[in-house]
Amino acid sequence: MSFAGYVSYPTADGTVIRSYLVVPPGGTNLPPGVLILRGVAGPDDGYVEIANRFAEAGYAVLVHGWLVRGNDPSQKDVAQDVAAALAYMAGHSDIRGNDVAVVGYCRGGEHGVIAASGNSGIRALVLVHGMSKRRSIDNEHPCHPVDLAGRIKCPVLILHGGADEVSPLVGMKELATLFMSSEKPVLNSYERAPHGFAVRTHPGYVASAAEDAHSRTIEFLHHQLPLSLQR
Question: Domain range holding 122?
Answer without folding.
Answer: 3-224
